[in-house]
Design brief:
Elements lengths: L1 H13 L7 H18 L5 H16 L17 H10 L2 H13 L3 H5 L3 H7 L2 H12 L4 H8 L6 H10 L3 H16 L1 H12 L2 H4 L11 H18 L4 H16 L3 H8 L1 H15 L4 H4 L2 H31 L18 H13 L6 H25 L3
Helix pairs in contact: 2-3, 3-11, 3-17, 4-17, 5-10, 5-15, 5-16, 5-17, 7-19, 7-21, 8-9, 8-19, 9-10, 10-11, 10-21, 11-19, 12-19, 12-20, 14-15, 15-16, 16-17, 20-21
């Protein structure tokens, strides 16, 4: 009888119920909320489902991301090895390869002024950098946090790793990916507050056709120019442009299909679950995390506002030929931000089709955020 009681007692003490804190239960509730938003409301499920499930797992079984030194058998948890690929910048760079293979850069080539809109949206990053310093972060930590303003998860992870801010990588990555997923909620109020009904209803002229030669030369030229100026951006910009060259060259269709489909989805699973697994209650529920979440939101709102305001300036300079709404797509959330520009414009005029026009600033924003990360690395001598 005592054997049975001892066995049942050991089994009971091995369950998670007796080992979880209130913080674990809170994070489990947050994970369930994210799953609801992803599944029931359709908010970027490819991002939120793996992130939320990683969050769920680590708060039930913390050892799933434990390093070999932290485990009794010296092996380490499953998601620890996924997370190492984040720290080593492998997964963020592969994400950029997939994005390049999936994305048509034609709208950016057809309307080079989109580069200015993409650059304007980076104001949120540098504004948040100064604000983060004022809130008590050191210079490198402030830079790593501020990049959230670009709404670019891979770049946020990449820069945090390069600047040695791995302790903040989890909150930074979760904040960045969460804001990427919540673009349809966060951006429209800012866009509507800064534009008039007349401006939102502006119908832009069709983009000019872009030749195959232009599309082939673009990734090559951008790689040479950007990486010569900021060599540290090569892992991101280089992979982005390589993926696009796969797409546009027409001679490596198998590579393009692999990069944009099978490989991309595998990397999203690995990166999403490992990022979610950094949100254990012990690591996530603290003052620094709250500051990071607030700063990320401020940076994202500022970036959206700066893009829209610069769009208004271009609207005046071009005598009403540019709809300011496309400036909000200057953040890096491809193609979510461009879709939001289309949606808000269509609310004023259902016949207005802004999606392709917004894709120009959207692609420029991806490049711009990578350049911003390169600038920070150059400043700190990385």
């Amino acid at each position: 009888m005592s054997y049975i009681l001892d066995t049942m007692g050991n089994l009971l003490h091995q369950t998670a119920f007796l080992n979880l804190t209130w913080g674990n239960y809170l994070m489990i509730a947050v994970a369930c909320l994210f799953l609801y938003l992803a599944i029931a409301r359709g908010y970027e499920p490819l991002l939120l489902v793996p992130i939320a499930f990683g969050m769920l797992l680590v708060n039930i079984y913390p050892d799933i991301i434990a390093s070999p030194e932290e485990t009794s058998n010296g092996i380490g948890g499953l998601l620890h090895y996924f997370y190492l690929m984040d720290e080593w910048s492998i997964l963020p760079s592969l994400i950029f390869l997939g994005v390049g293979a999936m994305t048509d850069f034609g709208p950016l080539i057809a309307n080079p002024i989109s580069f200015l809109l993409g650059a304007a949206a980076q104001f949120g990053i540098f504004g948040a950098y100064l604000l983060a310093i004022l809130m008590g972060f050191n210079d490198k930590a402030a830079a790593a946090v501020s990049i959230i303003g670009g709404a670019d998860g891979p770049t946020s992870i990449f820069l945090a790793g390069k600047l040695g801010q791995t302790g903040l990588m989890g909150p930074i990555a979760v904040a960045a990916y969460s804001y990427m997923a919540l673009v349809p909620i966060i951006q429209p109020p800012v866009m509507k507050a800064l534009t008039t009904k007349k401006e939102r209803a502006i119908v832009m002229e069709n983009l000019r056709p872009v030749s195959k030669l232009e599309k082939i030369l673009f990734p090559i030229v951008v790689t040479i120019v950007v990486c010569m100026i900021l060599p540290t951006t090569a892992p991101l910009v280089g992979m982005l442009m390589l993926g696009n060259l796969f797409r546009e060259s027409g001679v490596v269709r198998q590579l393009q299909e692999t990069a944009s489909n099978a490989m991309m989805y595998i990397v999203v699973i690995l990166l999403g679950t490992s990022v979610g697994a950094t949100t254990s209650a012990e690591a996530f529920l603290n003052i620094s995390t709250i500051k990071i979440v607030i700063l990320g939101l401020v940076a994202f709102v500022f970036g959206t506002a700066a893009g829209v305001l610069f769009g208004k300036i271009l609207c005046v300079l071009t005598k009403g030929k540019i709809n300011p709404l496309i400036g909000s797509a200057g953040v890096s959330a491809v193609p979510m931000a461009a879709r939001v520009s289309q949606k808000v414009g269509a609310e004023e005029d259902p016949t207005n089709f802004l999606l392709m026009h917004a894709m120009g600033p959207n692609v420029a924003g991806v490049i711009g955020t990578a350049v911003a990360a390169g600038i920070f690395m150059a400043i700190f001598g990385i």
